[in-house]
Amino acid sequence: xxxxxxxxxxxxxxxxxxxxxxxxxxxxxxxxxxxxxxxxxxxxxxxxxxxxxxxxxxxxxxxxxxxxxxxxxxxxxxxxxxxxxxxxxxxxxxxxxxxxxxxxxxxxxxxxxxxxxxxxxxxxxxxxxxxxxxxxxxxxxxxxxxxxxxxxxxxxxxxxxxxxxxxxxxxxxxxxxxxxxxxxxxxxxxxxxxxxxxxxxxxxxxxxxxxxxxxxxxxxxxxxxxxxxxxxxxxxxxxxxxxxxxxxxxxxxxxxxxxxxxxxxxx
Length: 267
What we know:
Elements: E1 2-3, H1 19-33, H2 42-45, E2 62-66, H3 85-99, E3 126-130, E4 134-139, E5 145-150, E6 167-173, E7 176-182, E8 202-211, E9 214-222, E10 231-239, E11 248-249
Parallel strand pairs: 5-6
Antiparallel strand pairs: 1-11, 2-3, 2-10, 3-4, 4-5, 6-7, 7-8, 8-9, 9-10
């Protein structure tokens, strides 16, 4: 993939995928930029926020870079993933194929989005734009935009059109943003290691700043179609006001398309 890692100098706008969203985010970003003094200290830059958000609401806006990276999302308590029989078989078959040097098809090799919950564990930065009614998560990976509706109930799941990101609603519980997501499509993986999921998956994320410049998300995956019980994992980020999201153009180097047997062609 053509992946420009020069985050510091790449503009924000490259990550916006639709004209309507671009117009709205431009206004929000401009409001924030007017509050930035080039001479501000690093600690002050982390406090820039949309002035429409009540001062009592925790501020998680800004660019966040992940702490570390792992291909698998695994239970936080160190236990084994509570597999259904079929999901364990699928995971083991994928691991064996990779070990043999004939990895099976990953949808992202065709430039399909990672989707949730895989994006939670992405090794690339995210930018959070926080408004009173909606929180936007701009993912550098595949230029995905996640929309989180604030203080609204989750619609009936059967009314949702399944999507890569799902439908997300959230509310604050003290210093913690609690996000619930449903309506996820079937054909994405939980992680890069190939943990499968089903359309029944629901995700509950709890975002909390653990220091002025650090944030963690403890998230629970509840998928009775793929697992025998809900299980919880964690991801952590550092705030990075000194960088901007970079261009991510998967389509320019589609080098891992599968052959007729479903095995990736590496060239």
